[in-house]
């Protein structure tokens, strides 16, 4: 056997979607870990997911319960989760109660019991829940007198590692308690927290310590679902490679618009279409997707403003292909409006669909709805988060088409939402203007990185079949104000007729 | 590896009824090394043994709470349990068996203790699901069968 094979530390799957990525590949085998966090932060659920992902009859998991949540209640609640397999409970996963040892005896007896049960069962995983109730409150005189916690933790860690056990101590700790001896001895520390901002609560996970592993730094959001914890790794900024040679052009599905942008959007770009309410942004976005479908591409639409049924009904009315593509699995419609959404959760859902379909086009409809769906804490750094989201998506090679609502003003020209325009390669604006006593719509291309584009305002209509681009307004001035005026020359020409 | 591979094969595909489980717990005590335990003493020994084994899982307090409720429910239908006492953290756990046999006779005492066990199995099933309860109890049964001197022996000695 090679030396590398002997020294390489195997990784165990955590059983928690997203967590292995954060951990740098999984849980190091035979490591001694601490899962810390406040009440209700998900420590017990996380430990159960680890057990159910790894326990076998030959290498079972031992779950020591100590005071805290009574075992029967814990089993009653845990079995509601989809990861709980009652076939494994009792054989591959064994629950052992240590109340008597803790209440009536001392730490030596607790250690002796854990070691003897470990020797008996030869487990692969050991969990002690809650370790805090064994260790007592720091500084409490009654405990300090009788328990030598440092030695206990040292001996427990040595025993469990010697028996080739990957172990997890669960405890309620506050951030200021990190000088506790268990923090020094632990090979890995996972910290679960719940941040409250106004009425929203966001769950976050941090790998505070991970010996021998390059874990992902920072706080990662997670959600507790029927399947247990799901972690949304904080994806770092991605480097996007833009093609230097002549890029592929993708049709928007709107002939006149394709003409304005030099033949279609550039493949792999982030495109933003802005406009006021009712200007037809979603219609163009759907046409963009349908054009891709017509070319045999697959795509993902993430909706934030409407229920998917309503979105689909409206899209189908103009483009019956949408429903058919959904049925055929060439298109996925993601509805992302859970409470207290995080950018990483949205990104995770979109990326998952993109990978599943090998999608080439993604529509985000709309950024305004997305921002509203986010928990308040994430709205504060929306720009930065969106930059990462768009960067990560376009790094995979997909073309991202986003819509954003801007408020209409007849006294001020606002082309895009100034906060987010910098993340895009191409910007198309729509707006209302008043012409001859009628409300008309115009669109223009105001940004297109690395490509020539039209600088004209073009009239357009939203018809039963979608957006149809019409003529230019070369005879008018002041279109940008929303109230264009016919040039004197044009007036004369009209009078002459 | 799928979870199906990891779990032990399911010995009984059909879920046994609480009465069947209770009878199995009792008969395991009758067929242990002592061989000659009477039905009532075997039922009491099954309770002692179950208390000991279940305590490993749910703690002595949790287990005592389960038995206390089961006894209270069974007592409502069975006057023979009036003299039965549960002694937490003691072995034997069920007290007053000899007195009940003297007062009510062997068959009535055996039936009464069996009814308490049935209530306990039902209660456990309601709390954690019948499948989990059955697994826990089967595991207790297996531990008892693999153990040395049975509860019935210890009960006789006591």
3D architecture notes:
The complex is a heterodimer of chains A (497) and B (158). Chain A contains 19 helices and 24 strands. With 497 residues, chain A is of the alpha/beta class. Chain A folds into 2 domains: 7-232, P-loop containing nucleotide triphosphate hydrolases (Rossmann fold, 3-Layer(aba) Sandwich), CATH 3.40.50; 249-488, 3-Layer(aba) Sandwich (Rossmann fold). In chain A, strand 4, helix 4 and strand 5 (93-97) form a beta-alpha-beta unit. In chain A, helix 15 (343-357) packs parallel to helix 18 (382-395). The longest helix of chain A has 15 residues, at 107-121. Chain A is elongated, with a radius of gyration of 30 Å. The model of chain A has no long low-confidence stretch (mean pLDDT 87). With 158 residues, chain B is mostly helical. Chain B has one domain. Helix content of chain B is 70%, strand content 3%. Chain B contains 7 helices and 2 strands, in the order H-H-H-E-E-H-H-H-H. In chain B, strands 1-2 form a two-stranded antiparallel ribbon. The A-B interface holds A 52, 55-57, 65, 70-72, 75-76, 79, 85-92, 95-97, 99-100 and B 1, 3-4, 6-8, 10, 55-62, 66, 89, 127-129, 131-132, 135-136, 138-139.
């Amino acid at each position: 056997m090679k030396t590398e094979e002997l020294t390489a530390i195997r990784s165990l799957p955590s059983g928690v979607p997203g967590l292995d990525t954060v951990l740098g590949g999984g849980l190091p085998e035979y490591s001694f870990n601490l899962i810390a966090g406040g009440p209700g932060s998900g420590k017990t659920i996380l430990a159960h997911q680890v057990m159910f992902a790894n326990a076998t009859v030959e290498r079972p998991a031992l779950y020591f319960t100590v005071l805290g949540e009574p075992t029967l209640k814990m089993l009653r609640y845990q079995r509601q989760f989809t990861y709980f397999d009652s076939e494994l409970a009792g054989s591959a996963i064994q629950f052992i109660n240590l109340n008597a040892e803790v209440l009536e005896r001392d730490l030596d007896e607790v250690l002796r019991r854990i070691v003897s049960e470990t020797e008996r069962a030869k487990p692969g995983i050991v969990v002690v829940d809650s370790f805090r109730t064994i260790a007592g409150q720091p500084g409490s005189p009654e405990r300090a007198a009788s328990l030598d916690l440092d030695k206990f933790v040292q001996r427990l860690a040595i025993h469990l590692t010697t028996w080739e056990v990957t172990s997890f101590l669960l405890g309620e700790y506050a951030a200021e308690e990190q000088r506790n001896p268990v923090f020094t001895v632990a090979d890995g520390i996972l910290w679960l927290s719940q941040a409250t901002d106004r009425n929203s609560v966001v769950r976050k996970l941090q790998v505070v310590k991970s010996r021998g592993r390059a874990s992902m730094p920072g706080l990662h959001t997670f959600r507790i679902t029927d399947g247990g914890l799901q972690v949304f790794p904080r994806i770092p900024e991605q480097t996007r490679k833009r093609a230097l040679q002549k890029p592929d052009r993708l049709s928007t599905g709107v002939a006149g618009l394709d003409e304005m942008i030099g033949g279609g959007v550039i493949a792999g770009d982030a495109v933003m279409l802005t406009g006021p309410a009712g200007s037809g942004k979603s219609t163009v976005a759907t046409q963009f997707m349908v054009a891709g479908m017509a070319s045999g591409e697959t795509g993902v639409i993430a909706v934030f403003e409407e229920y998917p049924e309503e979105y689909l009904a409206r899209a189908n009315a103009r483009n019956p292909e949408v429903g058919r593509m959904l049925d055929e699995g060439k298109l996925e419609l993601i509805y992302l409006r859970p409470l207290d959404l995080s950018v990483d959760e949205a990104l995770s859902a979109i990326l998952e669909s993109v990978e599943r379909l090998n999608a080439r086009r993604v529509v985000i409809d709309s950024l305004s709805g997305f921002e509203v769906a986010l928990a308040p804490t994430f709205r504060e750094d929306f720009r930065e988060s969106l930059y990462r989201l768009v960067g990560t998506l376009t790094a995979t090679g997909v073309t991202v088409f986003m819509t954003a609502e801007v408020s209409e003003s007849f006294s001020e020209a606002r082309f895009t939402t100034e906060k987010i325009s910098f993340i895009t390669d191409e910007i198309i604006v729509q707006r209302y203007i008043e012409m001859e006593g009628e409300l008309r719509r115009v669109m223009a291309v105001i940004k297109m990185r690395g490509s020539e584009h039209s600088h004209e305002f073009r009239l357009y209509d939203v018809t039963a079949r979608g957006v149809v681009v019409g003529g230019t307004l070369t005879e008018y001035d002041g279109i940008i104000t929303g109230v264009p005026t016919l040039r004197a020359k044009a007036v004369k020409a009209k009078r002459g007729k | 590896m799928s979870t199906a591979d990891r779990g032990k094969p399911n010995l009984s595909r059909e879920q046994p009824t609480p009465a069947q489980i209770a009878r199995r717990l009792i008969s395991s005590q009758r067929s242990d090394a002592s061989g000659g335990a009477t039905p009532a003493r075997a039922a009491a020994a099954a309770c002692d043994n179950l208390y000991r084994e279940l305590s490993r899982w749910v703690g002595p307090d949790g287990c005592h709470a389960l038995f206390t409720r089961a006894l209270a429910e069974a007592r409502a239908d069975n006057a023979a349990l009036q003299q039965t006492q549960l002694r937490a953290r003691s072995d034997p756990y069920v007290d007053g068996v000899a007195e009940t046999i003297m007062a009510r006779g062997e068959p009535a005492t055996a039936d009464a203790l069996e009814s308490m066990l049935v209530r306990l199995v039902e209660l456990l099933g309601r709390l954690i699901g019948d499948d989990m309860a059955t697994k826990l109890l089967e595991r207790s049964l297996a531990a008892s069968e693999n153990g040395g001197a049975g509860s019935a022996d210890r009960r006789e000695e006591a």
